[in-house]
Amino acid sequence: MTDDYWNHNTHYHGVVLRNVPRGCGEALDVGCGDGLLVHRLAPRAAHVTGIDRSPEMIAEAVRASAGIGNVDFVEAGFPPHDLPKDHYDFVCSVTAIHHMDFVKALTAMRGAVRPGGTLVVVGLANNKGPRDRAYAAVGLPVHYFHLLRNRRRAGNPGAPVMDPDMTWGEVRDEALRLLPGAVFRQHLLWRYSIVWRKPR
Questions:
Q1: What is the distance between the alpha carbons of residues 146 and 53, in angstroms, rounded to a whole number?
Q2: Kind plus residue range of the DSSP H or E element containing 45
C-alpha cells in the first residue's frame, strides 16, 4: 500500500471520506495520482476505481495496491474518458480539476453520479484582489502549525503540478450553476471543497 503521508491535499481527504454514503457500492476517484485516496476509500465502498492521465502515477498506484482486492485503476485523460451514466454512488476528485476544463470535467462527473449519490471536489483556485490575498495570508500560520505537527509524515507523491486559472469566485459561481444545491466552502490551506448530492 502507498505509504501514509501528509500534505495540503491529503489534509482534506477527511472532507471526502466523511461524505461517502453508507452502503456505497461503486466509487470513483478522478485524478487519483498514486492511489492513496483510493486506498482510503476501499474500506468504505464495495469497489473503487481510480483514473489518472499520468502513466507514472497509475503505475505507482497499481504497484502500491497489490493485495487490495476491490480497487482498480484506469490510465486515461478526463474528460474525454467515457464514464457510465448514473453509475457511481460516490465520485470525488482532489486537486486535479484545475488540470482539466472545469465545466466539462464537472459536467462529466455530475453525469456519472447515480441519483441519490454524492460528488465531492477539493480544488485550488487563483487569488484575485486584496480579499483573496488576505484570506490566503491567514492560511500561513495554519500551514506552519500543521507542517510542524506532521513533519515526520510530510510527503509529495510527485504528481504533475500547475497553477489554477480560475478565481475562487469563478469556481464558486460555476460550481453552483452546474450543481444546484451544492455546498461550496473555502478552506484555510488554499483549498476549496464542493459537496453535492444528486437529486433522486
A1: 30
A2: strand 45-52
pLDDT digits 0-9 by tens, 3-41: 689 898 999 999 999 999 999 999 999 999 999 999 999
Q: Which three cell numbers stand for residue 10?
A: 491529503
What is residue 135's DSSP assignment? H
Between CA 187 and CA 120 the distance in angstroms is: 14
Grid cell in block for residue 110: 455530475
How far is it, in rounded angstroms, from Cα 56 to Cα 28?
A: 19
Cell digits of residue 143: 500551514
DSSP 43: G
Q: 98-134, pLDDT tens digit by residue?
A: 999 999 999 999 999 999 999 999 999 999 888 888 8
Whether 102 and 166 have beta carbons less than 8 Å apart is answered as yes
